[in-house]
Amino acid sequence: MRTIMPKLLETAVPLEPHWFQILLALADHDLHGLGIMNEVLERTGGRMRLWPGMLYRNLAKLTDLGLAVEVDAPKDAERGGGRPRYYRITAAGRRACAAEAERLAAFVDAARQKRVLKT
Amino acid sequence: VADHSRSWLASVLLALYPREFRARCGPDFIAAHHACLVREAARLGRAGVLYAVLRTTIDSIWSAAVLHVSERRRERIAATHNVPHAQKGSVMDSLWQDIRYAARGMRRAPGFTAVVVSTLAIAIGANTAMFAILNAVLLRPLPFTDADRLVMVYEELPGAIAFPLGFSPPDFVGFERRTTSLQSIAAFRNKDFELSGVDQPERITAAAVSGTLFETLGVTPAIGQAFTREDDKSRRPVAVLSDGLWRRKFGGDPGVIGRAVILDRTPYTIVGVMPRGFTFPNRGPHLNNIPAELYVPIAFTAGERVAFGSMYNNSVVGRLRSGITVDQAQAEVKATVSAQAAELYPAYLAALAKDLTASVVPLRDEIVGRSRAALRVLFAAVACVLLIACADIANLMLTRGASREREIAVRAALGAGRARLIQLTLVESLILAVSGGVIGLLLSRWISMAVVRFAPANLPRLNEISMDVRVLAFAAGASLVTALLCGVLPALEISRRDAGDALKDGGRTGTPGRRQRRTFGGLVVAQFALAVVLLVCGGLLIRSFARLSAVEPGFRADHVLTFAVSLPGSAYRDGAAVRAFYGRLMEAADRLPGVSASGASTDLPLSVRERRAFSIETPPTASRGVPRSVAHDWVMGRYFEALGIELKRGRVIGPPDGPDGEPVIVVNETMARRFWPGEDPIGQRIAWGTDTNHGRWMRIVGIVSDVKQGPLSTAVEPQTYSAWLQVADQQLADNVASAFRGMKISLRTPGEPTALASAVRGTIQSIDPSLPITAMQTMEQVVETSIAPQRFNTVLLGSFATVALLLAALGIAGVLSTSVSRRTQELGVRMALGAQRNDLLLMVVRQGMTLVVLGLAIGLVGSLFLARWMSSLLFGIEPRDPLTFAGVAAVLAAVAFVACYIPARRTTRIDPIVALRCE
Predict the structure, then answer these.
(1) Taking the model in full, what pTM does it have?
(2) Smallest CA–CA separation between B71 and chain A, in Å?
(3) CA–CA separation, B437 vs B128, rounded Å?
């Protein structure tokens, strides 16, 4: 399964907005769930709130599909009593995210051409 | 919100998720949950916490469900690929499995499911309906502000009059100034008005109330304003409408304020409309208890304010000062009223004043106190019905469990623990009970509406019945308890079974084990015991109702039509006009075709309101010290003949007893016996008032048979009748008390009394076209109404008892029928060995009847103790009435025998060959 699904997914854009945002958060560094939640919140100006159930459900789904993987926490991330789980984007995840970004960029280009956007 | 409780919520939510998820992401989930709460609290404060709690809960329920489903899917794929998946599930996982399993089982047995769910729906529905009524009448606070501090205050004359009285106007006025324990008080009394100017003229029930009433109750009008103390004092013609009258007569027009309403042909200005749901006076108290459609100031006249010693008909409601208890108020009010009477009453009333005292009763007790016992008994009865239904269903589930023995044994053998098997059975009964509860809740609305329609008019607060949180909680609680009651025994039974035995049986349907039979038997015995208690209670009520119906009211109720008219003061200004109207009416009534006798009276039998104190000219020594109080009626025409009241001696009031004749009076037998024991009262003279202060002497001219003055269950009081025609013109014209303006007319006819109705309307119309007729009913209907409360209790409890009996009979029939079919082999063997069919039949019947007799015995003993609680509802019989107990035993035994015989008959159809072939 894990080998077929990503292929399908890369072409099956649009990507769910939640997934896109989660993958985007993971694009440049590994993060734990809470970190993803905060980064997404910040980037979307507080508009996208990932509630805990929604967040971990989607993370589980993304790992199932092979778009992200769980990794060991970095040594310096010891926190409180437990060691949080970190997630890392996979190559397939990166491709899916890029495809979605391109798709969105195409719309932005179109908006520019039609002078909906000034810049 | 403390950190502690936050993590608590997160842990609860986490429990919803699949086991694997919890193991992997548990701590992270809790941390994220905490972060969300902190974030939202920082953003929105307290509301943010609430928002976050709601959002995370909804989010978790949804996410957990999604994850469960995808886990299942993965398991299924794994299973088809032959991947072992022997992971032990969490409680949530197994619960989810059990729910699906139970639902599947119910789908596969639609008959079983339908029977169980509908039985429970009816039982829970009836319970919820009764609870809704109980809740509205007894539990919910009265719809007044701080209703716990409202009390009724009565004056009492313990020596002369057996029941509490209202306040006389001077007593009220003085008491209002003097009382220290009540922060405000208000007087009120019911008053009828002819309402005209809108549509047809009609008579409505209103209330004359103090200007302080609305502030005492703590209720303000929905539109406009209440009238004030000032309006009351200066006798302004202002009126406040009830919501009902406002909608009925004025179409709910908010512009009604300031308009005039014509009452007794006098215009009153409408100043306010009370809110919907405001009811006052309330049903329940023994006087001034009819909800008013309109309120006017009580406006005591100067004359009334000094009317010492009379007009004790103003009910008084008061609000306790905060911190004052009813007992403290009682002491203060008693002292104040006595002191005030001693100080203010004129010297000639000194004897009366010395006797005068007062009592304080919480308003709530006054309103619902008389209904409490009946409602509690009815509620207990309907709860018994639910218990019996539960026992039926527990038996059904046991039976079903028994037939699934092998399946369960396999599950147990494969490692399902005892707890898991109990859980499965409880889940099953929970699903059944909750389905029954939901349907029952819907049914309960109709049931309570039907009960209300049928309820007697004296049951208070019925307009307040509604489905509030408490009723919903009750329905939910009843469903849960039902689930437990239905499920626990089968669950224990199933889990206790030895898996090895069931499997060794090799799938043969064996005879039920001894312990299992005992469980079945115990349930049947309990059912019958409960049914017996209900039947005894129902039987006692039926017997006392029969006694009550057989009570001789003292008049002949058949073939009599009655109706009431009341002459408004503005159109009939003086006594002569009132006299002329009734003169013409009686004359016309006598001439009506089909009328054999006509008469009129201030009150009809069964509801005589007037009580009077009197003095005897030459009192017999034998009756010295007997309180001199009588019920009194003013009569006109051939009243005694019209109502069939028998003349015992002397003569009745007749044509010679006009305004100029000697004042005459007729007494009943009780009066003659009580005050002139062994003597002849005819020719004696009595007068209204006391020995020291009395009116004109009136000569006793006749003795008539005893007639009930109150409901049939009450004792006959001494009563007098005097001639309405001999009332002075000035009293006839009195428009405040209106004691003589309103009369009840009775017409006796050889034919059907209701056939006279249109002729009566025509007659009244020809005399006064705008005069409304009220309360037109046959005398038989009057009697019916007076026993309506008892009828209500009897019919309800009787039907509960019948349902209980049927459910118990179904229970034993079901148990025996299962037992016969499961013992087919055994019975076949017996037959092959030479047992006669009749022997087998007898054996099965005996098996059933043993249980029945045991239940009967326990039930009868229980009833001996429990029936005491109903003694206040009984009339004329003891709670341990042997005839009732014997009757119940006979009826129950007969029904139970039939219930045993029908399944037992199946033994005769057993073919030993077929039965043995199964081996």
Answers:
(1) 0.70
(2) 11
(3) 9
